[in-house]
UniProtKB/TrEMBL annotation:
InterPro entries: AcrB_DN_DC_subdom (IPR027463), Acrflvin-R (IPR001036). The keyword Transmembrane helix applies. This is Efflux RND transporter permease subunit. It comes from the Bacteria. Pfam families: ACR_tran. GO terms for cellular component: plasma membrane.
Length: 342
């Protein structure tokens, strides 16, 4: 795995928590022989641990401090392998030499054993250089895909990538809640579900503008840029509200026909829509261009808002009137059919 990951561009400081272990002597318990003496591997290991490592049987207090009193074999009886193999283990059949229960082999053991949720883990850490965490995680997953995973093992991408995916999931929920709240507020003001539905079509244009802006400026999608999307949910609907509200006023209070009201509202409300949108866009340009100290962190927010505002200002000027006209014509046609049938 290290060899596969090391060849990926954009990775630096690749490390593994599983370092080469130190040489050690391993005592392998023969379960069948232990069973003949009425012993289990746990009983053998516990007795061996007590005699070599020791067991705290009491405490000694001196000058306000407490010291454990360990009960174990003298040092000269536990430093050599032959001495350890000569240790006797108490069994139901009587004392049994340890050498009758175990076999000795040499090997290496891990320097440190890490656990997460009571499971052993081995961590491979690295630092991304020149690429985002999401792009690097995609490359790593692609490089590790051909490597077979043994039974009982699992490979997971964690760290900053795991936190980022968790944040994106939470953000998706927050975005849905924000859209629902904006729709409910507009529905209560317009006393209609159709007009807020038409206005909400400005949101896809804002999202298109955000993606274009981030792509053209080579800015990765991050929590800061997504925060700009969340802000746009409450901003881009303003133009549609101003336009449709004035169109409805012309039709209801001044007796304009549908086509006349759509044209007149577009002519009268064009300047206020452009003024409010352009002031927001130009106000965000210093942040988008990273002008000023500390703007590097928040520049994705400015770029997302500028891109979303540019597209959601000019394209809906054509799209919203057309969509409003289509819905109103269908509504009038439906009323005429009901009147004729009645």
């Amino acid at each position: 795995m290290l060899a596969a990951i090391e060849s990926i561009p954009g990775i630096a400081d690749l490390k593994s928590s599983r370092e080469p272990g130190k040489p050690e002597l391993q005592l392998i318990i023969d379960r069948q022989k232990a069973a003949l003496y009425g012993l289990t591997p746990y009983q053998v290991g516990s007795a061996l641990r007590t005699q070599i490592q020791g067991n705290a049987v009491s405490t000694f207090r001196l000058a306000g401090r407490e010291y454990d009193i360990l009960l174990r074999l003298p040092e000269e009886q536990r430093n050599e392998l032959l001495d350890i193999l000569g240790i006797t283990i108490n069994s139901p059949a009587g004392p049994v030499p340890l050498k009758n229960l175990v076999s000795v082999r040499t090997g290496t053991g891990p320097i440190e054993i890490e656990r997460k949720n009571n499971q052993r883990v081995v961590k491979i850490t690295a630092r991304n250089v020149g690429v985002s965490s999401g792009q690097l995680a995609t490359r790593i997953a692609r490089a590790l895909k051909p490597i077979p995973v043994p039974p009982g093992f699992d490979i997971r991408l964690s760290g900053s990538y795991e936190e980022m995916t968790s944040t994106f999931r939470d953000f998706a929920l927050v975005l849905v809640i924000a859209i629902i709240l904006v729709f409910v507020v507009m529905a209560s003001q317009f006393e209609s579900l159709r007009d807020p539905f038409i206005i909400m079509f400005t949101l896809p244009f804002a999202l298109i503008g955000v993606l274009w802006a981030l792509f053209l400026t080579r800015t990765p999608i991050s929590v800061i840029s997504l925060l700009g999307v969340l802000i746009l949910v409450g901003i881009v609907v303003n133009n549609g509200i101003v336009y449709i509200d004035y169109t409805n006023q012309l039709r209801r209070k001044h007796g304009f026909t549908l086509i006349e009201a759509v044209k007149e509202a577009g002519r009268v409300r064009l300047r206020p829509i452009l003024m409010t949108s352009l002031t927001t866009i130009f106000g965000m340009l210093p942040l988008a261009f990273q002008i000023g100290e500390g703007s590097e962190l928040w520049s994705p927010l400015g770029r997302a808002i500028v891109g979303g505002m540019v597209v959601s200002t000019f394209l809906p000027l054509v799209f919203i009137p057309v969509l409003y006209t289509i819905f109103e014509l269908r509504s009038e046609r439906r009323r005429q059919q009901k009147g004729e049938s009645g």
